[in-house]
Specification:
single chain; alpha+beta; Trna Endonuclease, Chain: A, domain 1; 190 residues
Length: 190
């Protein structure tokens, strides 16, 4: 059972695994390098999340506080996690909070990322952070709108690689200029 992302009211009395300290440090350093000042999230308890049981930060984006929740890779494709994150998002929205759940795979590549297709589609950290920056400021994006923000030699292939890696989700259907890209698995926009 995925205890990390369960609501406090759903959680049983037994101990649950705490988030990986390395992930917490990695994300905190990453946000600092992008000029963001990550702070502990004080309002997570308002939506039912245990702030000590997840990798989360409050950051200032264009004068607005955003609760950033990083979903560890091991949970990023878990249906129960996605359901819980959607509930957190609805609760945050009802309280007037900006809430963004980000898969860890958006912030750092998996060991196998880009390996099958070759280095030409590997997405570098700077481009991953450009995608994060876009979602923090604007929410979902058109495929080509998001690709235009990247410095990758083949930006559409980079977006597709992030989709395959589980970081992004491209709406169903044929890829076209109307295709929408969202963060994978959470359905929550700031």
């Amino acid at each position: 059972m995925n205890d990390v992302f369960r609501l406090d009211s759903d959680r049983s009395a037994y101990a649950f695994p705490l988030p990986d300290e390395r992930l917490h440090s990695f994300v905190e350093n990453l946000l600092h390098t992008r000029g963001l000042d990550p702070k502990p999230v004080n309002r997570l308890r308002d939506i039912g999340l245990d702030d000590k049981a997840c990798c989360s930060f409050e950051i200032d984006v264009d004068g607005d506080a955003v609760c950033l929740l990083v979903i560890p890779r091991r949970f990023s494709r878990d249906a129960m996690t996605a359901d819980h994150v959607r509930r957190y998002g609805r609760k945050a929205e009802a309280l007037g909070l900006r809430f963004l759940a980000v898969p860890e795979t958006l912030l750092r590549a998996s060991a196998a990322s880009g390996r099958d297709a070759g280095a030409a589609t590997a997405v570098k950290a700077d481009d991953r952070l450009r995608v994060l920056d876009h979602f923090l400021r604007h929410g979902s994006a058109g495929l080509f709108e998001l690709a235009a923000r990247l410095e990758h030699e083949n930006p559409v292939a980079a977006i597709l690689e992030l989709d395959v890696d589980g970081a992004l989700s491209i709406d169903d259907g044929i890829l076209s200029s109307r295709s929408r890209v969202t963060l994978a698995g959470n359905g929550v926009r700031p």
